Amino acid sequence: MNRMSPQLTVLLVIFSLHCYMSDMAMASDPDPLQDFCIPNTKWGYGRAARLDTIPCKNSSEATTDDFVFSGLKKPAETFSDMGIAAVSVTPQMFPGLNTLGMSFVRADIQVGGINAPHFHPRATEITYVLQGKVYSGFVDSTNRVFAAVIEQGEVMVFPRGLVHFQMNVGESPATVFGCFNSQNPGAQKIPSAIFGSEIKDELLEKAFGMTPKQIDKMRRKFVPKG
Ligand SMILES: *[C@@H]1O[C@H](CO)[C@@H](O)[C@H](O)[C@H]1NC(C)=O
After folding, report:
1. Among 51, 90, 190, 224, fewest CB within 10 Å belongs to which?
2. How far is the CA of 44 from the centre of ligand 1 (A)?
3. Is 115 annotated as a binding residue?
4. Ligand 1 mean position to 41 CA, how many Å?
């Protein structure tokens, strides 16, 4: 066998780099074709079947206010029974974000409170601790857990689509800021996706080795409220 010529090696490297880079481009929100796209509220989000078909306002009608959001100064008003209050900021609330491929969340967690295991099907998340001590982690697709207690000023990244969780292990309220590389990351909470959905009881009994009574108890706890 001949050794591969240096020219061929260089070509192969360039080719694989090219594939790698085009993969990266395909894996994110589409690149905008204009500076920004403030949704035209005359059309609204309600009537558009797809987020990417919402018409933009004429850019001459955009204002600075479209690019400033003041709704994260305080925690959300109501804490869940898990001790967390979250405000997810989407382009519906913050028009300037639209089409930029990102969004964010503020979450306040009471002492001992948790952000139950969940995942975002369309985004990687960076979580930044503004105050407090937070046990944070994720589980990879081999069920390995990567978790640590992170404190004020520290950051952790949760790769896209992987189950992750947080718990306030400090002695004071914690505040975290999460940033997503999608304007519509989506969120599926594991407990409610399983027990708050309409999967047949029989299947859940077999999957979890639980009795009908235990399933019923979990259903009552996780069925969506309101
Ligand atoms: C946007 O607004 C400007 C200024 O009013 C106007 O000249 C332009 O024709 C508008 N563009 C479109 C596509 O309507």
Report:
1. 224
2. 20
3. yes
4. 17
Beta-bridged to residue 156, according to DSSP, are 127
Domains in the chain: ranges and CATH: 41-193 (2.60.120.10)
Cβ proximity of 188 and 118 under 8 Å? yes
Contact predicate 166/115, CB 8 Å: yes
The DSSP element (H or E) to which 174 belongs, if any, is strand 174-180
What are the tokens at 173? 């309220």
Strands (DSSP E) found in 81-132: 84-89, 103-109, 114-119, 125-131
Atom of ligand 1 nearest to the CA of 60: 2
18 among annotated binding-site residues: no
- Two structure tokens written together for 213: 């009574």
118 known ligand binder = yes
pLDDT digits (tens, 9 = 90+) for 8-32: 666 565 555 554 444 433 445 777 7
pLDDT, tens digit, 9 for 90 and up, residues 74-113: 999 999 999 999 999 988 899 999 989 999 999 999 999 9
Q: Which two tokens stand for residue 93?
A: 């609330």
User: Is 58 a pocket residue for ligand 1 (Cβ < 6 Å)?
Assistant: yes
